[in-house]
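User: quick one, fold this
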Amino acid sequence: MRKLLSGMVLAALTLSLPAATHAQRRAAAPSMGGAKHEFGIDVGVSYVKPQNISGGIVIQTPVDVRFGFVPSRGNMMWEGRFIAAINTVGGTTRYELNPGVNVLFSNSPGGHRRGMFFGGGAGLVLADGGAGSGTAVQLHAGVGWRKPYGSAAWRYELGFQWQSDNANIGPSTIAIGGRIGISLWH
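Assistant:
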């Protein structure tokens, strides 16, 4: 019986030794933890200047949602974006839905979790101004920063945008603005 108990104690010590040595290691720096997707919600404001019309402010609310695909390595990340905007520039109210695709290039050792990034993309503008509706093409580029906030990050962006003209929704426009949002990883 003594040999059996001694053998069991020896086996238990042998099995628990790797766990004890692993627990003694210093904690590694926080990482993305294998995150594959970034989900974010933003609020944006921009100055919009249509061709041959006075410019004005556009607020991107109540929703500006993005869903990104975090790369396992490398500095390029793709994200889909959906914006609902109310535009009153030029004296008429226009309701817009803007689906689009962006590509982000991380410019810092923090990857897509923190630090500076450059971005660009394209999308559609699906607008309804009451008297008519239409679709336009949109191109944009900008620079942004992520600041860690617990397991999430604040995301700040500044950028430039061009929108094509459409007979039903108005002339071509340029916009300069920014947005602030929160990013969560899954």
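User: anything notable?
Assistant: The beta strands are 37-50, 56-69, 76-87, 94-106, 115-128, 133-149, 152-163, 173-185.
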